[in-house]
Design a protein that fits this description.
This protein starts with a helix and ends with a helix. The protein has one domain: MetI-like (MetI-like fold, Orthogonal Bundle), CATH 1.10.3720.10. It is 78% helix and 0% strand. The protein contains nine helices and no strands. By secondary structure, the chain is an all-alpha fold.
């Protein structure tokens, strides 16, 4: 009797231990992703708050010149120092956030929406639609991404509208391919067949049954694409193709500050660190979301 009880309880005990170990391991996997998500969100929230505040208040006018305070080092009056025209760098970095953040968001969300719609159409309908969308995508991807974007901005002219158009034309292809792959996998599922049998419209099947099931992969890529967009926006402004001075923008601040790198390194270091920290925050959020969705 005792031996029988032991034989019965031993597997149960082993199963309980294995279950606890599995729970511990899953918690350990979640902790790093939770930490990254919290840190990333904290960084992004600080930048968003600074951008909103800068629309209402900045310590100094970001545009106004003051030749009595030219190239001052960071001090109590000017936290980040001043530039070659005496403008307060802290105020200009704050105001630049109010420009970079919304432009980055639009330059990422527009190609995401457009590409997702094209991917839904190509994956669900196939045949002619699939061939047209894929061939156009192949044509766009035949050119180096940055080169094509520079050509588009050069043709359309420097400025925010040109940047948005160029980012959208170049960026939708990846979202379309990603969505198409997921749609082709899902559209033969039983719940989609049941929806067709029930007489649901094509629009309802696409946007209420298929789209919610492909949005996870799209969201993961979107977070990483935000990092690319903010860096690319700064790169275009640095090269003179993006947002034009005297409007403050992180890339243009770095570009104008490089002339005084030996004399006033803070003009390059501070905007560069600002851009890096914000991109790092976005990258942490993307990694955390990917970890959570994978596990």
């Amino acid at each position: 009797m005792t031996a029988s009880v032991k034989a019965t309880t031993a597997p149960a005990a082993a199963s309980s231990v294995a279950s606890r170990l599995s729970t511990v391991h899953s918690r350990r996997r979640r902790r790093p992703s939770t930490g990254k998500l919290v840190v990333g969100l904290a960084i992004v929230v600080v930048f968003v708050a600074a951008a909103i505040v800068s629309l209402i208040w900045t310590p100094y006018d970001p545009i106004e010149q003051d030749f009595t305070a030219v190239l001052q080092q960071p001090n109590a009056a000017h936290l980040f120092g001043t530039d070659e025209l005496g403008r307060d760098l802290f105020s200009r970095v704050m105001r630049a956030a109010a420009i970079d953040l919304p432009v980055t968001l639009v330059c990422t969300v527009l190609p995401c929406v457009l590409g997702t719609i094209f991917g839904l159409i190509a994956g669900y309908f196939g045949k002619t639609w699939d061939m047209i969308i894929l061939r156009v995508g192949d044509l766009l991807q035949a050119f180096p991404q940055y080169v094509l974007m520079i050509v588009l901005v050069f043709v359309l002219g420097a400025g925010v509208p040109s940047l948005i158009v160029s980012f959208t034309i170049v960026g939708w292809v990846v979202y379309a391919r990603l969505t198409r792959t997921e749609v082709m996998r899902i559209k033969e599922s039983q719940f989609i067949m049941a929806a067709r049998t029930s007489g649901f419209s094509t629009e309802r099947i696409l946007f209420r049954h298929i789209a919610p099931n492909v949005i996870r992969q799209v969201a993961i890529y979107l977070t990483s694409d935000l990092v690319f967009s903010v860096v690319a926006l700064a790169a275009f402004s640095f090269l003179g193709f993006g947002i034009q001075p005297p409007t403050p923008e992180w890339g243009s601040l770095i570009s104008s500050g490089q002339k005084f790198l030996g004399l006033a390194p803070w003009l390059v270091v501070i905007p560069g660190l600002t851009l890096t920290v914000f991109a790092f925050g976005l990258a942490l959020i993307g990694d955390a979301l990917q970890d959570r969705m994978v596990h």
